[in-house]
Amino acid sequence: MNSRQARRLPPSSLITDSGVDHVRLAYHYLDAGDLDGFSSLLHEDARLENPAPGCRHHIDRIVASGDCVVAIGRLTPQQVEFVDVFTLSEEGMLRSRRRYDAHPRLSAR
What's the rounded Cα separation, in Å, for the pair 14 and 67? Predict the structure, then answer.
């Protein structure tokens, strides 16, 4: 194996735990409208879409492994469930986020 094919080591639990803290803080800053605080959690190469103003995030669960943090929750007042998948940088900063929305189910008649 040459240097171009060198495998990246998985991040330490300290980095993963730091990433979980950054995800929690990201939602806090977004809900408070503190975009400077939110930006302070992002890696310089971050690829995150602009947050929707006026929403509150209610997080039900956060699961993390290595450089991946998954947050499961819902947005209010829209009452839309979502799953956000974050990728962390080597320093535990937020590098990317992909959101999956669950559309409200229609009631069966």
Answer: 11
